């Protein structure tokens, strides 16, 4: 067979200057070398719209007949890609992922592996990407059955562990899974006693459990399969309720367990896939029969090189019913990190079928691959009218799992994260009963709106405010998503006709007019803006945001000693600082919609004072004060005097050690416990939830609340007067770990940290009491300063009672172990799977697979025989 193929391999740039000396000139001409240009639509990535590019996984031989055939027939897709872009110039990546592992994407671009694994080996396989997994088959309930008898000890057990880990990577959030091991007894491998959602957290727990399997005893397939069938049919747990699968990993055996299959699977509704693992002399006939008798497939995994290919080929089998149904249903994925560096994207997918017929006239039941079109979240955000619903309003959207597609708190901090970014709506915000109802109605595609009194966390993540917010939501037609708007109506619009040049003016870099160029230089942008608006009117169709500009008036306020500067900020993005010299040291964000001080002012009708940052974050001040002029306090040396803001941050003190603390609290744990009622509430933020509450003795109306949240989210919560808020930041969901296997070569790291916050809730103005420290005590009194967010606290000095000298509570992020993930899986949140299920209606009789390693072994043996024959001839 001869192929005449020209293509650009995405790795070409790696060897343009180092072509293999043995490569023939004829072979070289088949590789295209496009002319690339930077394209801002792709974040200045090198792009060529004249060609598509091809990526072939490292572990697949790019000269094989199968790959050459794929290159040949997928070449026609290039014209389709180009036509699509002509019809819609905003299209980003268009990708075809083949069931063989080849990926053809348009426009062409040199490949960059953003994960940068330590070995520098490219481990990208399109069949492992979230969009391919979700688009290739219907949801599945999978029970992985691991043989833990003594015969699998040693290398075979290591191969099984790695194989199971790779199998788990083929599952998405629409799937449910559990792993059990058996010999003469059956045991849950992890802490789950039923199927659980195949999210990142649960898969990590199952992987860890598999590593702890030990081999002993003898094999009893009857007990293993009976346990598996019962768990798959448990009606009391949430499941995918579509494809039902049992995956058996074993070295072989004599038992067929026919009685169990006749009793539990007479209609063959549960597929059985069997894997013979390791190099051994055991009879594999019985486990081949299990697969063939139950509409499954049999595979062999003799070595580590055969694991990846053979643990994902089952998806081709599950795709057969979809092919027979000719189901061309577009599916939209979860949010995930694009491998070609577009950032967070969603992908619309469509399966590609083989519609040809066999010689006997029957249809071929093969899924050829999945087509995908990426949509960047940045592009979606640009389409939402951000400045029309106020600084404290925002748009968000969720999918049927309750995961947010859009939300201001969807901000993953680990760019190497390879799993879908699954942040639940209730973790992006503080969970309460009303928000649970909103989430349920959105998932059920029931439109509505609710106005609630809720708590919000500030832009700088330091403060908690209470405000009235309105949620309005509706389904997005033609997609699985549901969109909503979160708004606050608390603005008074005042328009002025004159733009005075007094003070120092900052302007937010917004697209006020379509033909007004935005620059990062504030001075230049302000000059361009002034010249531009002289020629335009508020009703100009090119300037849809001009009407929202509120020009600040001149402040005529008598200078107050100690006040360095005053300012006016507006909803239109204009900020003016008085005097002009004060603006030269202004470090606030010019975009008022991103400024905590501005957004807080809309929820509070008092004077807001904010403590300066002592870490790397920028400071936020409502008034700049000369500290030296306020430091002289009426307090004397036998008492400690401090002024705190409503977040518990220190503004002033008569003790130097307090001033130099970085985000440290002056209130001790004893003082908090004497003032507070404690409620500890754990919220597992991204993937699933469980909640528990503990109550302790209380004296005064101050509550302490503990909240968990991941780095992808911001959580807000509230309780009385100064309320202690503890949150956990999850920078991903994996602690750094190493495995003996190669299944998780992508670097997955995370950390969990705890943060403490305080805020006012009620109107109580003063508190007082005594801290009993055994042989001495300390008196305290706290007064809330009128019309401000400040608290004045006076206590007996530490030196008067040294036994009352614990370490202060820290507001800086502290390491934490987080919640118990096994408890979280017991009460999963409400979700909905896909509306359509394609399962178990195929009639394919082929059920035996062969490992890639065997193909390579056969080729190697043939080569060896040829060399030997030539040597004999010589």
UniProtKB/TrEMBL annotation:
One of its GO terms (molecular function) is voltage-gated calcium channel activity. Residues 141-318 form the VWFA domain. It holds the Pfam family VWA. Coiled coil: none annotated. It is a single-pass type I membrane protein. The keyword tRNA-binding does not apply. GO terms for cellular component: L-type voltage-gated calcium channel complex. Keywords: Calcium, Calcium channel, Calcium transport, Disulfide bond, Glycoprotein, Ion channel, Ion transport, Membrane, Metal-binding, Signal, Transmembrane, Transmembrane helix, Transport, Voltage-gated channel. The keyword Membrane applies. SUPFAM superfamilies: vWA-like (SSF53300). It comes from the Eukaryota. InterPro entries: Ca_channel_alpha-2/delta, VDCC_a2/dsu, VWA_N, VWF_A, vWFA_dom_sf. The chain crosses the membrane at residues 853-873. It is found in: Membrane. Belongs to the calcium channel subunit alpha-2/delta family. This is Calcium voltage-gated channel auxiliary subunit alpha2delta 1. It comes from Astyanax mexicanus (Blind cave fish).
